Amino acid sequence: MTAPQHQDLGLGELRFPEADPRLKKWTFGNLIAFTGPGMILASVTIGNGEIFSSSRGGAVFGMAIIWTFVLCAIMKAAIVYSGGRYIVLTGEHPFQRWAQIIPGPRNWLALLLGVLAVVCFPSWAVAYFQGLGQWSNWTFHTSIDPAIWGLIWGVIGFATVFLRSFKIVENFQTVVVGLMVVFSFVAVFVSNPPWIEAIKGLVPNVPSDYPGWIKQDFPDVAGRSIPLEIIAYLGALGGGTYDYIGYVGSLREKRWGMLGVPDHAVLEEKLNQLDSDHARIPLAEDTENVAEGRAWLRAVKLDVLASFVSVGILAITFLVLGDVVLGTGASQTVPGDDDILGDQAGFFSMISPVLVYLYQIAIWAAFFGSLQALMSTIYPYTVRESFAPSFKALREPRNWQKVRVAVATYTFLGAVVLLFSGLSYTTVISFAGILGGVLSLGVWGFAQLWTEHKVLPKPYRMHRWAQVVVAISSLALFVFGVVAIIQFFQDFLG
User: Fold this and answer.
1) Which of 113, 385, 400, 455 could staple 276 via S-S, CB 3.0–4.6 A?
2) What total of structural domains would you count in the chain?
3) Gap between the Cα atoms of 444 and 98, Å rounded
């Protein structure tokens, strides 16, 4: 009788390390204890996503589109959680398993999503260059070309890749997100928005036209189709595949679940040889092991929950402030290419002029913190996880710092080219957001559902309701992405 393949590979039945006792109880303290990579994920989108896109959405459409931000945060959180739970349960990134189970040439889907993500790296980086360039002139009262300031900050951001401590990045970004949440909460309550209108904004309703003042004073905004404008906001909200692939990979640093077994690298290599067309991941299915596995999953739930609750709060508060301070009946101005950040200072000056200075500090922390986290942590992990299934050298721990430097160099040089190309800020983040933050994310969600069905023993799969949520989210994001990418190129090409 032939032994099962996993026994031939010396795997045996896989058992989880004992879960941290704090994971057995849901408390606020435990939420903080198991928050880290999620805060890095939340922080890398604050500047382009929540501060710019949400404020612009509030100024243009008011509170009528609050529901789109809430729904998008839920959909993205569901798909990100599906990837995070897989790596914690199995000890391997889902992209590694796709080589075995996705029909077609080996590794084609991981390579495709990886290439789409890598194409977007310079677009997001240059957006931070541009934001920091404008911030510097505004804060230091200079009139230097913002591109020069942006280049200086880009060089400093690139240098952070030589800081090798994940903990430094994790702690810094957690503080950044916390500060922004507190500031925005205070500003919303001081502004005393029309709360009834905000509640009505939770009811699905797509605006049929732009306000009259937008058509008159901002024809470039009014010239964009309404679906494209709104989907571009959602693409920037909370990040996209270029961030999420790296986020899932960064969970290796936490050693949760199967990532924390002794000789994890050996386990991962054996799993890579497992032909899952004929065998599932050999997780022990006894009651004790299933309980330990599900306890470890609480760490992922807490981290993703903290990340996307923070993202949702920031998005909604900046949208509300955008309506109250910048929108119809207020100053009637729209954050745009030439003033990405300045208009939002009004959110805090209405509390006290002194808070404008605190806002300037928070903006620097958000934009520069995001830039250095992308270059030093998220993007290198995205490259590793996307291409390691095809190129074994990327899986070698001794090559990790080389990967970080190479990815940071590519991102920096690509961003410099875009910085001096004349492309507008909104064009750059719209393209990257639609491609990576909407369209490709839908593809990832479907692939993740298939992966769970194909290789995870039944006790470890998501509950049926969670599978339905991921399926609906994946379909919605894919359809939104197709519609928006078609309209984007129609507008871009004239």
Assistant:
1) 455
2) 1
3) 11
- pTM above threshold 0.70: yes
Cα Rg of the chain, angstroms:
22
From residue 206, alpha-carbon distances to 25, 62, 329 in Å are: 41, 11, 20
∠ CA 303-166-401, nearest 5°, is: 130
Domain span at residue 170 reads 5-492
Q: Say if CB 417 and CB 125 are below 8 A apart.
A: no
365 and 85 Cβ atoms separated by less than 8 Å: no
* Token couple for 16: 């989880």
Chain centre to alpha carbon of residue 366: 14
* Residue 294, pLDDT above cutoff 80: yes
- Say which range, 94-98, 397-401, 431-435, has the weakest mean pLDDT: 431-435
Q: Is the pLDDT of residue 460 over 90?
A: yes
Place of tokens 């998005």: 315
Rounded Cα distance between 36 and 84, Å, is: 13
Collapsing DSSP to helix, strand or coil, 262 comes out as coil
Q: In whole angstroms, give the CA distance from residue 190 to residue 182.
A: 12
Residues 224 and 489 sit within 8 Å (Cβ to Cβ): no
| Average confidence (pLDDT) over 158-187 | 71
**For residue 181, what is the enclosing H or E element?**
helix 166-191
Q: Please report, for the chain, how many H helices and E strands are present, in that order.
A: 23, 0
Pairwise CA distance, residues 393 & 128, whole Å: 31
CATH code of the domain in which 41 resides: 1.20.1740.10
Burial pattern 447-481, b for ≥16 Cβ within 10 A else e, equals bbbebbebbbeeebbbeeeebebbeebbebbbebb
User: Letter for the amino acid at 270?
Assistant: K
How does the average pLDDT of the chain come out, rounded? Answer: 84
Q: Token digits for 105?
A: 């040439």
- Residue 182: CB atoms within 10 A of its CB come to 11
Q: Report the share of the chain in percent with pLDDT over 70.
A: 86
Q: Are 117 and 242 in contact (CB under 8 A)?
A: yes
CA–CA gap between residue 92 and residue 127 (Å, rounded): 32
Whole-number Å distance between alpha carbons of 326 and 56: 9
Q: Which of 35-49, 60-74, 210-224 bottoms out in mean pLDDT, i.e. has the lowest? A: 35-49
